[in-house]
Design brief:
With about 160 residues, the protein is of the alpha+beta class. The protein is built from 7 helices and 7 strands. The chain is globular and about 45 Å long.
Amino acid sequence: MNLTVKDVMTTQVTWVERDTPFAAIAAALRQYRVSAFPVLDEDSRVIGVVSESDLLNKMALGGGEDHMPGMITGILRHKQLEKARGVTAAELMTAPPVTVSPEDTVEHAARLMYLRGVKRLPALTRSTCWPGSRWTENHSTGPRERVVASACGAR
């Protein structure tokens, strides 16, 4: 029997919007006891994932190259430094999101996570929340939560 992503995924999803500030993301990570959030744009499209790792990079690199030891400075990429200077989810997130379908096998998801170097995969259905499509909201779950396919991977 091949396990599918829908067999192991979370279905209660909490997300952040692209303009959510760094401090609010950090507080929400603690509050919801998760390690990442999908980031949605104004049209409820998944545009990226912001994680604890993104926030840690900001804390470590946010001062820029001039605050880093010389040897490390040569290794860092310009993109990493720019991202570390970000103050909103859109500036801090990893984009575009690496996603799977709930119908994909767990083996496929694990391989994709390994090959793309990610720890979280939003599992999106084409009809509700594939990148470029909208998520549908279940208002009974409260603000910032939707019942849709969720993260396969680290929580």
